[in-house]
Every structure is written in structure tokens, then in C-alpha cells.
Amino acid sequence: MRGGAKHREIKISQLQREVVKLRGKSVDRYMYTEHESRNRAGGLKQIKQENKVVHQYESKDLARCHVLLLDKFTTH
Q1: What is the pTM of this model?
Q2: Where are the domains of the chain?
Q3: Per-residue pLDDT tens for 35-55?
């Protein structure tokens, strides 16, 4: 997602927030599911290929935790 157009095309419906167990602790995470990818050639072998899913976990050690920033963005 290097291009600005791809960033502007992201929809809130592509994000799903959930709480999961990780190393014995409950952590928040967002799952981003992309609708399309430019890396697919579009051949017959790729017709039934699943959409890419990216997981972003909460990190309280970081000054700019992506989960906390997304929480702040989606609540306003």
C-alpha cells in the first residue's frame, strides 16, 4: 500500500476488532482484509484465491500503537 490512492480506498468495513489470547494474555487486535491485490495476475489458478488478511496486535510498549490509534480514529 505505497500509493496514496490505496490508503484512501480503505473502508472501515475491512477492519475487524477482536480480543485474542496471546502467550497467556488477552490482547486486542485488528484484522484487515483486503478486497483486491495488484499482485494477482488474474489467471485461472488465482480465481479462488483467498483475500489477504493482516493482523495488527496491540503493543503498549510503542508510543504509536496502531490498535490504539485505530480505536481513536474509529470512535470519532
Answers
A1: 0.64
A2: 4-75
A3: 766 666 666 666 677 778 889
